[in-house]
Amino acid sequence: MFIDKAEVIVTSPDRNFVTLKLTTDDGLSGLGDATLNGREMAVVAYLKDHIVPLLMRRDASCINDTWQFLYRSAYWRRGPVTMAAIAAVDMALWDIKAKAAGMPLYQLLGGASRKGLLAYGHASGKSIEELFDSVRAHQQQGYKAIRIQTGVPGLASIYGVASNKTGAGNQGKRYDYEPAQRGAYPAEEDWDTRAYLRHVPTVFEAVRNEFGPELVLLHDGHHRMTPIQAAQLGKSVEPYDLFWLEDCTPAENPEALRWVRRHTTTPLAIGEIFNSIWDYQTIISEQLIDYVRSAVTHTGGITHLKKILDYAAQYQIKSGMHGPTDISPVGMAAAMHLGLAIHNFGIQEYMAHGEKTNQVFEQSFRWEAGMLHPGEKPGLGVELNHDEAGKYPYEQAYLPYNRLADGTVHDW
Ligand code: GCO
Ligand code: MG
Question: Among this protein's residues, is 159 annotated catalytic?
Fold first, then answer.
């Protein structure tokens, strides 16, 4: 079974997605997600110019060998562009292998370890009332776990908080935010850490009082604090029993989590911008985190993320795979198959894609009572509709960035 066709498809239904489609000489095809939000075309060039020529006539069944060949023969290892490109090849080859076996991919990964995957959605509001409405809307859609992001008094717009109400979700009206800002320049947002640290605990107190102890609550710090500020936040939300505090400090220095860990029992999650097992080496072996946030898409695919999660399992650290709308339905399907199979699954992020995206990517996953299941179709269970994809050409898009009141650029 040889690879004899490789296509890189860029489509922008609700946002940009990069997909690799590999086809074998016996007519099987597999899909891989290579979307790197805001830097999509760098991965397109890496795939088209450097990887596709190497794939022609390769044995499609040799997933491990292809992974090692692409990783080691580049010499310039790791990095988000390289690892997203390798991830796409890896996913597509797993898709092909599972289709050849006539099984949903999770069966090849060892079979189901659970009935379904607990998933969390994103509630947000500028005010407490808006936030409560958003939490209720998520509960109506079945969510049992909800991320809470809130406006901060004095700040006009910040990460994670809806600025408009849209119907983008496939589960009815919801607050949608962070569409990669289409346009010629990143949008500017505001930041003030002291105001944020004062406000967030009051919000979690209000949410617990309103919604009770059962609801699973999460929060994303999006890399904006110093270790001691993060420690202060972790301590101040301890009474509200968070499932996790995510990305509390910048990801470039994961060892900073030692300082946070000394001061708080709030569970910690990190890793959405990591791309290899080496980023996790110290923080897993020293048990500085509780959840691995990597997406299959940004961490070298199923083959590499499974290694990270198997390593994490030795330390009782679980998965919490990244799943915002910039992970395509192909990347989400890969996450669901992997999450269903591994023992140390924790939770899956799930924002739900918009209707146009769901027409481009024909999917077979199930969403029931707050749980995801990848379905029983052979392979990943996702097919690309080329006619629909062709309707939405690439549009340049940037993520926003932050400035402090005095004009200093800050982590977003
Ligand atoms: C999350 C993430 C996203 C990122 C996005 C950037 O926890 O889901 O922080 O919201 O900001 O993936 O492209
Ligand atoms: Mg995050």
Answer: yes
